Structures
1.
Amino acid sequence: MAQDVKNDYMEPEISTPEALTRNRLRELEQRKRTPAQKVLDIIFILLPFVCGGVAIAEYLLVPNNSTNPHPERYFYVLIAAIIAYAMYLMIGLMKRSRGDVLALTKVRYYAPLISGIFIFLTIYDYLTLKTGILTQPFIPCMNYIINAAIADRALLLECTIHTLRLLFLGYFLGVITGLITGIACGYSAKVRYWINPIINFLGPIPTVTWIPIMMVVASSLFMGAVFIIALGAWFAVTVATMTGISNVNKDYFEAARTLGASKQQLVRNIAIPGAVPSILQGCVQAMSSACVAIMIAEMLGVESGLGWYMNWQKSWASYDKMFAALFVICIVFIIVTKSLQRIKKHLLRWEIGDEQ
């Protein structure tokens, strides 16, 4: 009888704050939405189609202020963007039909941003191709940029491969070296005594400051650029690794020593796993530093790559090709950094689950 009374008055499991996961809270928020809010969500989800239609209508119907060779290419790009969003929406609807009540949350979240991009493209096309308010050819319209990218696609691809080769070579050298010095400094006070002054000396100096020096001192421009990229990555990973290991609970080390763990086992089984979140964050920061360093290095001295291509086309006043390279740089670096963040998220999925 007492057990029955106890069961009647027990709180449901989700009533405690600890039991409410982030996804569960979102589900509860979704259920509490008013009909007006749901209608507003539908409007926002459909808004990219409207804005994409406006961009197409402006491009096709408003007269051009200058010649526009191969006008269909920009039109195809707009159509492809609308189709991509439609597929994204369809995937969300399919997941929703299978019981995932939060499937459309991401679609709803990104819909205003996508709509804003379409509006920006509309205004940009109107100010360049349609009216010439933004002076041509210094600020080319989108169709000019697309035409330039297609016309020079072979050289752009070659420069992209060279940039990625230089980027990853310097990045991984810096990351590996940073892991070694960071682990040594984080675990050993003696090593930290000698390495800390170097970190404190190099830390305040921006990586790009060393580029003119390395372009003169290095045996080749390529190796000088590799060193500059590796230096920035080394610093970020070293500091992050050292901080992560220093923040590991000291009780874990004491318990492991009590059980007879050796120094190598303490480093391998306690220090490094405990510092993994900080290490991965340092790797992400190192990639950002490497992307900045490689662009400046290629513009200042390296005779290949996307940065070199931009500088070369600027000297020939080929601004459409310069903008095409700029877009390629943005796309490549976004893919690289997003891939690294996804790897980090996958490796730390246990930590994300704890937070939820």
2.
Amino acid sequence: MRVIIAGGGTGGHVIPALAIARELQSLYSAEVQFIGTARGIENRLVPQAGFELKLVKIGALKNVNLVTRARTLTDLPLAILAAGKILKTFRPDVVVGVGGYASGPAMLAAVLRGLPTVAFEPNVVPGFANRAVACFVTAAAVHFQETAKYFRNAQVTGVPVRKEFFAITTNNNSHPPTLLITGGSQGARALNRAVSAALPQLQQRTPGLHIVHQTGERDYNEVRAAYDSAGMTSNSEVSPFIDSMPAAFARADLLLCRSGASTVAEITAAGKVAVFVPFPHAADDHQRRNAEALSSRNAAMLIPETELTTDRLVEAIASLLNDPARLQQMSSVSRSLAHPIAAAEIAAMIARVSRNEKRETRN
């Protein structure tokens, strides 16, 4: 089986795509090639993982100025033609779109050539690229049941997550209450500043609180100084970057974080509870919708960034950490939303679509 995986731009697109590619190789001895753009993180991660990457030129259409949008629309026909040439050379049995800049042109090229297609959508509301091809794709793998309505032949598979997150066990409460704060590898300034202001009240409301805080490089010195000023030097671990996030998850009773699709999937895999503060400028407000998918099931709490006051933040964190029974109940719900065999299920869907197409062609 020959498979092209198209898309990228961010780790949220590329990391699950690589997990799917590895599963296709392992289970079906598939030959996999990627299509991306020169601006995305796929340029580093895909070759490192040992896969061939072809590039097309295409920019963004969402949340950009008119000049950028016009340039992208001008580039789109050329990107579809370029993707079509890649498909003609590689001759894939199926094309998989994972969202991001390159996904749209490659999937449209596949549809125009009559190739079977599979869309992977990790967010509650599909991104622009997947919405553009939703009515044409052969099948779709989605993270949330709410997303299935956008596609034909959709199956809830979840998002591929590293096995280390599923191996995390429930804390036994024999350690100080531990809060893990992460805004991603670059940090989140809104979270950093809100927590810095709230430290005195957090200590007062939650005695013995221990905080593990990934700040990103930009805010590290400022946040470190805030912990020192609050007298929390000894019961905090502040760093620009956390090397082993599964290990940090394992120690945490509660997380304060953004709500990108991969983060949400990791939290459910670990059976953790989070206070989500969605990034308000994410395309189509997808982080808020992701957070709502868990908070509506009582598996997490949601604080919009516009409502991120010191009092609201302290109350959310303290009310959860001071109520172990509530945390345990929410943790159970969170873990019930996990998908431990997501990569295998998505790979099986891709293989099934490919086999069905071949069978129809022979008939």
3.
Amino acid sequence: MKKNLLMWDETLFRDPEVLEIDYVPEQFEFRDAQMRELAFQIRPGLRGGRPLNTICKGLPGTGKTTSIRKLFAEIEESTKKLVPVYINCQIDNTKFAIISQIYRKLVGHLPPSSGTSFKQVFDAVARILIKDEIVLLVALDDANYLLYENEINKVLYTLLRSHESYEGTRIGVIVIVSDLDVDLTRAIDARVASVFRPAEIYFPPYENAEIHEIMKARAMQGLFQGVLSEEMLDLVVGQTLKSGDLRVGIDLLKRATLTAEHAARRSIGREDICGAYEVSKYLHLSYTIKTLKDEERQILNSFARRAAQEHEMNAGEVYKSIKESLSIGYTRFYEIIKKMDAMRLINLEYREGKGRTRIITLRYDPAKILEYLA
């Protein structure tokens, strides 16, 4: 009888790293125009000048972050005088946290976590830039997370007007935005706008044929021959298109391979892909919930429990029910629900009635939200 079961030490993965969503491929297809525009914006920094400021805008999973990472790797290979710093604003979303990451890039470690002021850290950063004649290029990924509590203005003002307090500093900024409803040029104030003046580079969603080529290349690099048939590749592409996010497709392929491997099969089947999609389609929800603060998690938890009884929730009524247990003012509560709306966790609508009523609905199944919160 032909042996089809996998031995305990066998695997379907040729290179599992290729199927990680933060993997940067050597051959990066279908973003040549955007990469050329970005290179043009960065080029003055390679000559010792200040890089031109840029906004990279597009839906999640359209290649914005990978484009930046590819160019930053090229910069680091070619020069020490232009230092690129990538910041994930889902994680580091305050002025102090962002400057601390810049400090770590230049010094090799974070500043002391206590007893150190923002001014001390930025003074140290500026001194290094001036002393070593370094040009700084900062990429703020998912910068829409900085829109709350005016952090975007604080960060951009500090970076882009640094030369006024520290003569000789040269800093350029790339802002990456994944929410197409966000108009960053309207969100920043006049004193920032006067020095920001960005060019905007748009990253359109990948088309069917493009997703097919990308997923095929990942499968060929990451999996052994014969593990993913052409028919199953088409199914992966279809599920990826359904989600509209390339990262979902990559995560889906990884999970489907693990499922087939666990079942001791030598190839991926339809049931592996469909089962994996039921998890991968919540990729955005999973990642976003991880970035929430305790107070925000408690409010989202309240929304999910209440949504089990009522699909549409009146913001004022929800606030009344949770304000005592959370000891939160309405202004802060409203800031949090605006943030959750921008993060695509909830929909926040306004309706005219007795005054202007704010209506909250969830973008995900309440049970799933509670599951990921737990």
